[in-house]
Amino acid sequence: MQAHSCMAKKYKKKDVVRVMDAQIKNVIINVLDCVLWNTVEKIYRVNKDLVRLSDKSQSEVDPNEF
After folding, report:
1. What domain of life (predicted)?
2. Which of 3, 36, 39, 57 has the fewest CB atoms in 10 Å of its CB?
3. Cα–Cα distance, 30 to 53 (Å, whole number)
4. What is the pLDDT of residues 30-50, one digit of tens each?
């Protein structure tokens, strides 16, 4: 790899690949983290809605609703 004016040190090709690989892994972990967080939020919202629906008292439930 040729030295660039921005680079103070010469890097071997393997070192650069390893750095890029680490960056890709970090991005993948961040994406998975976001996906997991969104899933947890959706589950929480659904659970909250179910709890709200189940809070109806027995007298409010009409047998004809089913």
Report:
1. Eukaryota
2. 57
3. 35
4. 777 878 888 888 888 877 777
Where does the chain have alpha helices with state H? 13-54
Which residue shows structure tokens 């010469």? 10
Query: Position of tokens 């609703």?
Result: 65
Q: What is the pTM of this model?
A: 0.34
Amino acid at 31: V
Measured between alpha carbons, how far is 38 from 30 in angstroms, rounded to an integer?
12
Tokens of 7: 């680079």
| pLDDT for 43 | 83
Distances (CA, A) of 36 to 15, 40, 41, 47: 31, 6, 9, 16
